[in-house]
Amino acid sequence: MTNTNPEYINCLIVEDEPLSQEILESYIDNCPELKLCSTCKDAIQANAILHNESIDLIFLDINMPILNGIEWLKSLDQGFEVIFTTAYSEHAVEGFNLNALDYLLKPFSFDRFLKAVNKFMVLKKNQEINQSVTSKTIWVKSNKKSYPIKLSELAYIESDGDYLKLYMDEKPIIIHETLKHFISKLPNTVFMKIHRSFVINITKVEYLEGNQVSLASKMIPLAASYREEFYKAIEKNEQV
What are the 4-aspartylphosphate sites (modified residues) in this protein (predicted)? Predict the structure, then answer.
């Protein structure tokens, strides 16, 4: 059974070449934070493992019998991260288009393997920080009433003079407070100012188009003075 100790990263190897299997197994064995749950030679075996085990990270070969790694990954609802392993560099672009965490070109060294694993560690840490932050609740006053605001539901804040509109999953709440003062209550790892009148929850961003950010079905302007900081925050917050 999978080791459920949260300190471990539960790994799965999907690789049909015995030598490549042995190398990956050896590399994983030399990383105390990694736990190898199973090694599979094809997608059919891997499906069975995913059905019964909780996997965090898959080392996935692309050229395999029955179903190649890219086609197999397309068929799945991902609840894990993937690092592709292959001898053919031409697969890299398609692999990254599937949001693969990294791409290891065979033969790869232990140092290169560690760099890929470190990407997962950074991603995991950022996700844990975001989950901890957005699970919090703050209280605000509006029309002589107090309302609990879950930060996980707060998409963005719009400033209008001394008033703010707090946009969540439902209709906005209007409060009498300046944007500068309200920002001081928010965790800056998740909420950031992208315009003089707007602060957004970067975990709620749907897509970028030109100098605008889409979230909660609204296009919000991204001011030039905040652009560099915004892109750095997005890069840090993404799957890497």
Answer: 61
Contacts of 43 (CB under 8 A, 6+ apart): 14, 64, 66, 67, 69, 72
Q: Name the fold adopted by 9-132.
A: Rossmann fold (3.40.50)
* The overall pTM is greater than 0.85: no
Ordered alpha helix ranges (H), the chain = 18-29, 43-52, 69-74, 92-97, 110-134, 179-183, 224-237
Q: Does the pLDDT value for residue 96 go beyond 60?
A: no
- Pairing verdict, β 145-150 and 137-142: antiparallel
Q: Which is nearest to 69 in space by CA: 38, 47, 36?
A: 47
Task: Decide: helix, strand or coil at residue 150.
Answer: strand
CB neighbourhood size of 190 (10 A)? 23
Residues paired with residue 186 on neighbouring β-strands, in sequence order: none
Contact predicate 66/40, CB 8 Å: no
Write the class of the CATH domain 135-237.
mainly beta
- The tens digit of pLDDT for each residue in 149-200 reads 988 889 999 999 889 999 986 678 999 999 999 998 888 878 999 999 999 9
Looking at the chain, the domain(s) classified CATH 2.40.50.1020 span 135-237
CB of 36 within 8 A of CB of 29? yes
